[in-house]
């Protein structure tokens, strides 16, 4: 399963034949409003940590860095456009693991925007050139694509050296229902003095060390997500009654 599976509904290779397809603000699309985790790159941490817990999510046999934007579909409280994760700022342009800037390699999610607040913008203008809205989204997608390899390499090193641990989220929120997630991981607080960490910072640069600190601080944003979820009706599904959050 890809880190992007929950975000894109109908990713389609771009064709100039449908260049007049209009694109809207990210929150106009249900897949954006309903997402619970968004794949990110670690250079985004300084901005995103103000809003969301930053953690790792397991997709099949690999851990990927994500922003946990909601504990349940439909209850994300997203910040303004300039503070969104790059993947959401780029939407509906599809983020690829290796994305070029040519139209021949461009994929766009042709999902329907069900709550547009304006007329949007076409991908291509009448003269065949990219609109400003499309160029901006492509740039965000390219920036994220280029940052992913270094982020994945840092993740592999952290996992290989045993510096990550599971982050189970188990809540009983009364009328707001229950949450039980076991697919997330965080940097272990007990490993902050591990010599292996300092070697990894030497290898990956000062930004990696700053990221670890920002990541740990971001985990307290879980309280913000709980507050948003308390507004939700209790689900019918039955889950464990215990509460466990490890920071």
Q: How would you describe this structure to a colleague?
A:
The structure is a single chain. With 247 residues, the chain is of the alpha+beta class. Helix content is 30%, strand content 17%. It contains seven helices and twelve strands. The chain has a five-stranded antiparallel beta sheet with strand order 3-5-4-11-8. Strands 10-9-12 form a three-stranded antiparallel beta sheet, with no helix packed on it. Strand 4 and strand 5 form a beta hairpin. It is globular, with a radius of gyration of 19 Å.
Keywords, please?
single chain, 247 residues, alpha+beta, 5-stranded antiparallel sheet, 3-stranded antiparallel sheet, globular, disordered C terminus
């Amino acid at each position: 399963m890809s880190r992007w599976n929950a975000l894109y509904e109908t990713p389609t290779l771009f064709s100039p034949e449908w260049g007049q397809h209009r694109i809207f603000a990210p929150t106009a699309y249900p897949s954006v409003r309903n997402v619970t985790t968004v794949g990110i790159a670690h250079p985004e941490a300084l901005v995103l940590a103000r809003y969301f817990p930053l953690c790792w999510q397991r997709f099949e046999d690999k851990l990927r860095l994500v922003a946990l934007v909601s504990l349940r579909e439909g209850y994300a409280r997203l910040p303004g456009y300039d503070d969104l994760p790059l993947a959401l700022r780029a939407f509906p342009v599809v983020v690829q693991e290796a994305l070029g800037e040519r139209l021949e390699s461009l994929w766009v999610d042709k999902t329907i925007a069900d709550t547009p607040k304006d007329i949007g913008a076409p991908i291509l203008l009448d003269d065949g050139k990219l609109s400003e809205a499309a160029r901006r989204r492509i740039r965000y997608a390219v920036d994220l694509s280029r940052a992913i390899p270094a982020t994945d390499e840092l993740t592999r090193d952290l996992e290989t050296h045993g510096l990550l641990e599971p982050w189970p989220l188990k809540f009983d929120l009364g009328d707001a229902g229950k949450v039980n997630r076991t697919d997330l991981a965080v940097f272990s607080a007990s490993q902050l003095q591990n010599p292996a960490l300092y070697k990894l910072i030497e290898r990956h640069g000062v930004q990696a060390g700053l990221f670890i600190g920002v990541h740990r601080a971001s985990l307290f944003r879980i309280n913000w997500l709980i507050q948003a979820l308390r507004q939700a009706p209790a689900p019918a599904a039955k889950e464990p009654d215990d509460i466990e959050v490890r920071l």
